[in-house]
């Protein structure tokens, strides 16, 4: 069960990194820069004054909590559920960041900044975390299926 545990640990670590990058990206105001200021998801700053922008939300913590639960629990596996949550979070992140890109890419004198790229960087971590949990679940099911056969692995 060493490979299964390693995949689950790797998936949890990748999910944790995806969460950190998503929170960092969401909480900061440096998605785009333009002459005289910068803007994020929540505030637009010009010079020394910042004004609020209407809210948006996310839900990725559920995948991390489920991953930690699977990692700390023996027996009954919920790896497919966790991988589906991470894949869904990755898809939602892809839709959100692509929509933001399309909305702002055509503006003159606008440059994407580090908060924006943190959002894009969270995407592969989320997808890879989903694959780790999916592979761990597949290994678990295959070892259960052949456990009755006299085969040495």
Automatic annotation (TrEMBL):
Q: Signal peptide location in the record?
A: none
Q: Where in the cell is it found?
A: Membrane
Give the membrane topology, semicolon-separated if more than one.
Multi-pass membrane protein
| Cellular component GO terms, alphabetical | plasma membrane
Q: Quick check: keyword Membrane in the entry?
A: yes
Q: Which positions, given as ranges, span the membrane?
A: 12-32, 84-102, 114-136
Q: Which UniProt keywords apply?
A: Membrane, Transmembrane, Transmembrane helix
> What is this protein identified as?
Claudin domain containing 2
**Native species:** Balaenoptera musculus
Taxonomic classification, please?
Eukaryota, Metazoa, Chordata, Craniata, Vertebrata
Q: Which gene encodes it?
A: CLDND2
């Amino acid at each position: 069960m060493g490979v299964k545990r390693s995949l689950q640990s790797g998936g949890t670590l990748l999910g944790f990194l995806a969460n950190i990058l998503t929170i960092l990206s969401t909480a900061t105001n440096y998605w785009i820069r333009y002459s005289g200021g910068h803007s994020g998801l929540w505030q637009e700053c010009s010079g020394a004054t910042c004004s609020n922008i209407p809210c948006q939300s996310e839900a990725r913590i559920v995948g991390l909590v489920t991953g930690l639960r699977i990692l700390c629990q023996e027996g009954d596996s919920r790896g497919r559920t966790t991988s589906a949550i991470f894949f869904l979070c990755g898809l939602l992140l892809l839709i959100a960041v692509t929509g933001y890109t399309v909305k702002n890419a055509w503006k003159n004198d606008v440059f994407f900044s580090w908060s924006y790229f943190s959002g894009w960087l969270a995407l592969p971590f989320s997808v890879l975390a989903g694959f780790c949990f999916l592979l761990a679940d597949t290994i678990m099911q295959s070892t259960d299926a052949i456990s009755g056969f006299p085969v040495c692995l």
